[in-house]
What does this fold into?
Amino acid sequence: MSRPPFITFEGTEGCGKSTQVQQLSVRLEERGIPFLVTREPGGTPIGETIKELLQFAPQGIGMTPETELLLFEASRSQLVRQTIKPALARGICVISDRFFDSTTVYQGAARKLDPQTVERLNAFAVGDCIPDVTFVLDVDADTARARMQKPRRPDRMEQEPAEFYEQVRRAYRQLVAREPNRVVLIDGSRSAADIGDELWATLVRRFPAVAGKSEIGNLSEPSAPTSQRPKSGM
Ligand code: ATM
It folds into this structure.
């Protein structure tokens, strides 16, 4: 691979994605690997405005699944062109907390929008910007609920019945079966440290260059590590 990896994290709410993004960032930082952390929806000024509408704005109540799908894609197409592609082109590793697999799973499987339409819109939004590896953190509903006990802003997307999240979980597992070369299923019920170790081992095996600067080989190196961290817990 002649450019740094584009890594995405997926899973249901409370699966521990944010913790793993944080742990991976620390490892990359320690090794002097330039990286950027972003998230979906959001990650750009346009995307953050869309996120507000999707998740928190009172006008979001009554939003149709079709509108929801298009808003996620709009946020994504901006993020890809404004942030992700330019970073990868500069030799910066990109980590995204959610990407197009979330749409496949939430809007396609759980909201039951036509999967082919979702796939086409995903393809339109991302172009050739496909993650090199996607970690799906798999947890059962009880574990997820227990991890979500801390007070948070009311989120329209989190008002769905348990069945919705069961669908999401099933669809993520199907995705792993469909794309085993890209999508890696991680047992998210273990300690954050154990998960972090497994994830790192997988990453180093697939992309030896992330193990340390001395092994980077033909990556073009920007001057300093870059990190555009999520502004707040979503
Ligand atoms: P977080 O769990 O990362 O905060 O995600 C925000 C919500 O957006 C999450 N909601 N729930 N429930 C998943 C949802 N989402 C989609 O439904 N489709 C998408 O394409 C993306 C990126 C997120």
